[in-house]
Amino acid sequence: MYANLAARPSFNSASGENANSVLQGMQGLRDAAVESMQALSVESRDLLKGHKAVEIKHNGAVYRLQSTKLGKLILTK
Fold first, then answer.
1. 54 in Cβ contact with 63 (< 8 Å)
2. Assign residue 14 a region: left if phi > 0, alpha if psi is -120 to 50, beta otherwise?
3. Can you give the pTM of this predicted structure?
4. Mean model confidence pLDDT for the chain
5. How far apart are CA 61 and CA 63, in angstroms?
6. Structural domain boundaries enclosing 70
C-alpha cells in the first residue's frame, strides 16, 4: 500500500504542477548550487608561462608562486 502511494505524484491544483515537476525543478537548483561550489581549475603552466616564479596580488598583499626543480609548487607571502 505504501509503495503505491509513494509512486503516485500528487497534483497541486493551485499551481497546476504535479510532484514530479516540482522535484525536477529542485534537482536543477541543487545541480546549479553544486556547480557554483566547485573550484576553478587552472593549469600551473598557464600561470607561470615558462617562468620559474610569478607574483600574485591578493587583498593588498603580494604572494610568490614558484616551481621547484622537482616539479612542486611553493606559495610564499
1. no
2. alpha
3. 0.50
4. 81
5. 7
6. 44-76
Q: Which residue has the cell 534537482?
A: 27
Strands 73-76 and 61-67: antiparallel
Residue 26: which pLDDT band, with cuts at 50, 70 and 90? confident
* C-alpha dist (Å) from residue 75 to 43, 44, 62, 65, 66: 15, 12, 10, 4, 7
Same domain, 48 and 33: no
Q: What single-letter DSSP state applies at residue 52?
A: S
Is the C-alpha dihedral spanning 66, 68, 73, 77 positive or negative?
A: negative
Alpha-carbon span 75 to 67, nearest angstrom: 9
- CATH assignment of the domain containing 49: 2.10.70.10
